[in-house]
Amino acid sequence: MAKYIGPVCKLCRREGDKLYLKGERCFTPKCAFEKRSFAPGMHGKTGSRGGGGANRTGRESDYARQLRAKQRARRVYGILERQFRRYYETSLTRRGLTGLNLLQILETRLDNVVFRLGFATSRAQARLLVTHGHFIVNGRRTDIPSMILKEGDAVAVRDGSRALNYFKELGDLAEKRTSPAWLGRDLKKLSGSIDRMPERVEIDGNLNEQLIVEYYSR
Q1: What is the CATH number of the domain that holds 129?
Q2: Residue 208: domain span
C-alpha cells in the first residue's frame, strides 16, 4: 500500500493553509505551520506557492490554481496521484455532478469514515487503525483503508480490539468530536453507519471540486 511518508507539515506550508493532518496537534502552539507558514524551500518566503504557477504579471495561472486545488484534496485525504485519478475516472461514470461524485467517493473511504465518526484524531491515524485490523465492516474484519462504503454499510470496532486501552477510552474521547449528519454513530457500541451520501455543504468547503475537474479535463 503506497503512502506519503515525508513530513506532513511541509504539505500544509506548500498549500499555505492548515490541512489538520496531525489531528489535535494542529490545534496547539506546537503546530509547525504556526512557526513557518511560508512555503518550503529556499525561495519559500519570496516565491510563489504553486512552484512555477505565476505568470509574468505575478498572477497565478489557471493551471496553477487547478493544480493547487487537486493537490490540496489529495493531501487532505492522504491519497497518491494514481489512486486519486482512478477516483476521478470513477466519478465520471456515475450519474450527477462529477465534482460532487468525486468528493463523495473520498468521503466514503473507510479511513475517512472512521475519522469522521470521531474514532481517530486524523485520517492518518484512522488509516493505521484500519490497517491493523481493528474495525469490521458489515460484520467482517477488514484491513483496507481505501474500501469505499455505500449507504447502509455498518462500521464497528472489532470485539478483539475493545480490550485495548485506546478503545476503552475511545467512547469518552469520541464524544468530544462532532460527527456529520450523514453518519449514524453509537458511542456505547463503538459503531457507526452510512445513513446516506454526504451533501456538498457537509464536505470541506475549502476544497474546490470544479477546479479539480478542470485540471483533469485539460
Answers
A1: 3.10.290.10
A2: 8-105+204-216
What pLDDT, in 10s, does the model give residues 18-52?
A: 565 655 554 466 555 555 655 666 555 655 554 54
113 with 146, same domain?
yes
DSSP 68-116: HHHHHHHHHHT--HHHHHHHHHHHHHSSS-HHHHHHHHHHTBHHHHHHH
Sign of CA dihedral 4, 5, 7, 8: positive
| Residues 123 and 101 both lie in one domain | no
Nearest Cα residue to 173 out of 1, 24, 2: 24
3-state SS, 131-190, equals HCCCEEECCEEECCCCCECCCCCEEEECHHHCCCHHHHCHHHHHHCCCCCCCEEEECCCC
Calculate mean pLDDT across residues 169-184.
93
Number of domains in the chain: 2
Q: Does residue 2 sit within a domain?
A: no
